[in-house]
């Protein structure tokens, strides 16, 4: 069973999104779709790990490899993978799912459709998944219209405070894009400067499996360690409207990887073969 977006529910989601910069919507994807997504990720992960050089392993794999509690981990444990929507037919279809796109278009649409400008799978394995520092997606993308970017964060497992759900800085969507810095040994890991981040209260946003947490490109967000015995896997779909260009990206942005969502998407279907991963750069 998936969500039906009535005009009144769309209005409520949009109102919350505009007011505080994020909103969580349950039941957008049913169990069969989430299981198929996890199956596809499992196949893709094995292929990607086999192909990675040392630099990629350092970036994509969890540093701490204590997998005692990770019941379906049977080797190196991934931290993230980049661009499933670009590389995997299943995820291209998932990103075009009508109930999801109806909400995305209500938030950023111009009537000409939207594209996925980047996507990521976050693994956050039991006990070893590490934190993601406070950042704004718009700092990475550098759009000419700050309201032209929204992220749909799809929970593949229930995301809880214990396993490292997202936290948001309520109303930071209404403020500016702020200075970010990166640790010297992790130049891609851009984050809000500590003096600004420490002044911003952050609110947890638990999401049920199959639900989606939407956030504005300017909204401060972060996630904490996974302190539980449960996975916290998610796929983040970053959408942009067709009026918006990335005129000031913080890191090199590959415009050829924009994936437009089709006006009449095909139904979601099982996994298809992957193509090789490229090195990570974006949030
Ligand atoms: O899932 C996470 O821990 C980080 C997600 C994130 O930063 C995003 O979706 O923009």
Structure write-up:
By secondary structure, the protein is α+β, with helices and mostly antiparallel strands. It has one domain (7-60, 77-260): Jelly Rolls (Sandwich), CATH 2.60.120.620. It has helices spanning 7-20, 31-51, 54-60, 84-87, 89-95, 98-108, 137-141, 194-197; strands at 22-25, 80-82, 114-122, 132-135, 149-155, 166-168, 180-181, 191-192, 203-205, 212-216, 221-223, 234-241, 259-260. Strands 1, 2, 3, 5, 10, 12 and 13 form a 7-stranded antiparallel β-sheet that branches. Helix 1 crosses helix 6 (98-108). Bound molecules: 2-oxoglutaric acid. 2-oxoglutaric acid (AKG) is lined by residues 122, 132, 137, 151, 153, 221, 223, 234, 236, 283.
Features:
alpha+beta, 13 strands, binds 2-oxoglutaric acid, single chain, Jelly Rolls, 7-stranded antiparallel sheet, 283 residues, globular, 8 helices, 4-stranded antiparallel sheet
């Amino acid at each position: 069973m998936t969500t039906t977006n009535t005009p009144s529910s769309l209005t409520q989601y949009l109102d919350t999104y505009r007011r505080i910069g994020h909103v969580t919507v349950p039941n957008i994807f049913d169990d069969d779709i989430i299981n198929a997504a996890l199956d596809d990720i499992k196949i893709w992960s094995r292929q990607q790990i086999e192909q990675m050089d040392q630099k990629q392993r350092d970036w994509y794999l969890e540093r701490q490899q204590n997998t005692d509690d990770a019941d379906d981990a049977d080797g190196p444990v991934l931290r993230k993978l980049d661009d499933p929507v670009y590389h995997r037919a299943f995820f291209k279809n998932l990103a075009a799912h009508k109930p999801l796109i109806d909400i995305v278009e209500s938030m950023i649409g111009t009537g000409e459709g939207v594209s996925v400008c980047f996507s990521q799978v976050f693994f956050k394995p039991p006990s070893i998944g590490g934190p993601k520092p406070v950042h704004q997606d718009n700092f990475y993308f550098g759009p000419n219209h700050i309201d032209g970017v929204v992220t749909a964060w799809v929970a593949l497992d229930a995301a809880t405070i214990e396993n490292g759900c997202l936290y948001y800085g309520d109303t930071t969507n209404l403020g500016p894009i702020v200075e970010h810095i990166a640790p010297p040994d992790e130049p891609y890991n851009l984050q809000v400067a500590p003096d600004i981040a420490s002044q911003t209260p952050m609110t947890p946003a638990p999401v049920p499996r199959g639900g989606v947490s939407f956030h504005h490109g300017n909204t401060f967000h972060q996630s904490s360690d996974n302190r539980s015995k449960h996975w916290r896997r998610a796929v983040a779909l970053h959408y942009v409207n067709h009026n918006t260009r990335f005129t000031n990206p913080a890191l090199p942005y590959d415009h050829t990887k924009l994936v437009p969502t089709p006006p009449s998407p095909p139904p979601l279907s099982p996994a298809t073969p992957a193509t090789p991963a490229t090195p990570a750069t974006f949030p």
